[in-house]
């Protein structure tokens, strides 16, 4: 795919959607392109995550808890392991190519450089983290009666 296609896909992810083209170009140039065939594992649950991946084309099956059956799927524009862009975490699921798959690997170091050059990225990342924590707290609160 051309650089313009990579930029278009990057702009679909919420953390990148409001960035100017030159910031997206920096990510597209610095990201590592990976191509997988159906059945190949992109990453495994529990492994250290030092990067995130954005799906450029194809589909990823999301598998958790060692189960063989996918619990969901991710297609073009989906950012996998977003929190790995900010801090050290473990992968929360195994990602398996459903067929031909192309992804961009975005290393934490690249994201840090992006935040240094474009401070608004840090504000966006902080807001995304806050939204995720709020959502998780609400989900946990909704489950409280089950454990009371």
Which segments are poorly predicted (pLDDT under 50) over 5 or more consecutive residues? none
What is the helix content? 25-40%
Q: Enumerate how many helices there are, as a single number.
A: 4
What average pLDDT do the residues reach?
Answer: 90
Tell me what the CATH architecture is. Answer: Sandwich
Strand content: 25-35%
Distance between the termini: 53 Å
Biggest beta-sheet profile? 4 strands, antiparallel
Biggest sheet strand order reads: 1-10-4-7
Q: In the CATH hierarchy, what is the class?
A: Mainly Beta
Q: What is the total number of structural domains?
A: 1
Organism: Ectorhizobium quercum
GO molecular function: DNA-binding transcription factor activity
InterPro entries: cNMP-bd_dom, cNMP-bd_dom_sf, Env_Response_Regulators, RmlC-like_jellyroll
Pfam family, one: cNMP_binding
Please name the defining characteristics of this protein.
about 150 residues; alpha+beta; Jelly Rolls; 4-stranded antiparallel β-sheet; 10 strands; globular; Env_Response_Regulators; cNMP-bd_dom; Cyclic nucleotide-binding domain-containing protein
Overview of the structural elements:
- By secondary structure, this protein is an alpha+beta fold.
- The chain has a 4-stranded antiparallel β-sheet. The chain has a 4-stranded antiparallel β-sheet with strand order 2-9-5-6, with no helix packed on it.
- The longest helix has 28 residues.
- The chain is built from 4 helices and 10 strands.
- α1 packs across α2.
- Helices cover 38% and strands 26% of the residues.
- It has a single domain, classed as Sandwich (Jelly Rolls), CATH 2.60.120.
- InterPro entries: cNMP-bd_dom, cNMP-bd_dom_sf, Env_Response_Regulators, RmlC-like_jellyroll.
- GO terms for molecular function: DNA-binding transcription factor activity.
- This is Cyclic nucleotide-binding domain-containing protein.
- It holds the Pfam family cNMP_binding.
């Amino acid at each position: 795919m051309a650089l313009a296609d990579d930029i278009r896909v990057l702009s679909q992810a919420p953390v990148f959607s409001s960035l100017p083209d030159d910031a997206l170009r920096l990510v597209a140039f610095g990201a590592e392109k990976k191509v997988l065939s159906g059945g190949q594992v992109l990453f495994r649950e529990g492994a250290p995550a030092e990067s995130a991946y954005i799906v450029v084309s194809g589909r990823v099956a999301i598998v958790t808890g060692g189960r063989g059956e996918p619990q969901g799927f991710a297609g073009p524009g989906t950012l996998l392991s977003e929190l790995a862009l900010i801090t050290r975490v473990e992968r929360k699921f195994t990602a398996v190519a459903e067929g031909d798959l192309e992804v961009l690997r975005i290393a934490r170091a690249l994201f840090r450089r992006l935040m240094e050059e474009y401070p608004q990225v840090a504000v966006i990342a902080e807001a995304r983290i806050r939204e995720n924590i709020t959502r998780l707290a609400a989900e946990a609160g909704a489950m409280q009666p089950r454990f009371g």
